[in-house]
Write a structure and sequence with these properties.
Blueprint lengths: L2 H13 L2 H8 L3 H15 L4 E4 L2 E4 L1 H18 L12 E7 L1 H18 L3 E7 L2 H10 L4 E5 L2 E2 L5 E2 L10 E4 L1 H8 L14
Parallel strand pairs: 3-4, 3-5
Antiparallel strand pairs: 1-2, 5-8, 6-7
Helix pairs in contact: 1-2, 1-3, 1-4, 2-3
Length: about 190
C-alpha cells in the first residue's frame, strides 16, 4: 500500500472534496480519484461516498483514515529516533488561515535556514479542530486563536476575534495547562523558533 495514496485519502476526507484535495496535493482531480480507487480496490470495499461535488467517508473509510493518520505519523517520524542530530525530523504544525498567510511564511523561511534537517508539514484548520488534533497527537503544535476551554476539556466557540487577540502556539504541554484551568494567554511563553 502506497503511503502517498493514504495521504490523498486523508486530504480528501479533511477537505470534503476531490478537487480541493487535488489542489492541496498538487494533483489533478483525476489523479486523486485514481488513488482513492486504487485504495478501494486493494481493500475491496468503498472508502468514500461521492455526493455531487462533496465526498464523505464510509464507516470503513473512517476506520482506515484513523489508522492511516497513525501510520503516516509513524512513517514521518521513522528516522527521528535513530538520527544523532536532534534537530532533524518532521514538524507537524497546524495553523489557522490568518497564520498561514501572515505569520507562518517568514517563520518557515527562518526555520528552513536555521534547521535544514526539519521538514515542516502544515495542516490548515480552525482553532477548535487544530486544538483537538494537538491533544490527539496528530500535530506537534498549532497556531490558532487562544481557545476557551470548558470544564470538560472541550473547546468552547468564542465570539469573533478582535484586534487585541493574539495568535497562540498550542503544544501538548500548554494544552494540558489550559485543560487544567490555566488561561491560554498565560501559556503563550512557548517559542516556535
Amino acid at each position: 500500500m502506497d503511503t502517498r495514496f493514504l495521504e490523498t485519502l486523508l486530504a480528501v476526507l479533511e477537505r470534503g472534496s476531490i478537487a480541493e484535495a487535488g489542489r492541496h496535493q498538487n494533483l489533478s482531480a483525476a489523479a486523486v480519484t485514481q488513488r482513492i480507487r486504487a485504495l478501494e480496490a486493494e481493500i475491496g470495499q468503498p472508502l468514500v461516498i461521492r455526493v455531487g461535488r462533496t465526498v464523505r467517508p464510509t464507516e470503513l473509510g473512517t476506520s482506515v483514515a484513523d489508522k492511516a493518520r497513525s501510520l503516516l505519523n509513524e512513517v514521518r517520524g521513522l528516522g527521528d529516533g535513530i538520527r544523532t542530530d536532534p534537530l532533524r525530523g518532521t514538524l507537524r504544525l497546524g495553523a489557522i488561515s490568518t497564520a498561514t498567510t501572515g505569520l507562518l511564511p517568514p517563520v518557515l523561511r527562518r526555520l528552513a535556514t536555521r534547521y535544514p534537517g526539519i521538514e515542516a508539514y502544515i495542516l490548515p484548520g480552525t482553532s477548535r479542530d487544530l486544538y483537538d488534533r494537538v491533544l490527539k497527537g496528530d500535530l506537534d503544535a498549532a497556531l490558532g486563536a487562544a481557545p476557551n476551554v470548558a470544564a470538560n476539556g472541550r473547546v468552547v466557540p468564542k465570539p469573533a476575534l478582535g484586534a487585541s487577540h493574539a495568535v497562540f502556539l498550542l503544544t501538548p504541554i500548554n494544552s494540558a495547562a489550559v485543560r487544567a484551568g490555566v488561561p491560554a494567554t498565560k501559556c503563550s511563553h512557548s517559542r516556535l523558533v
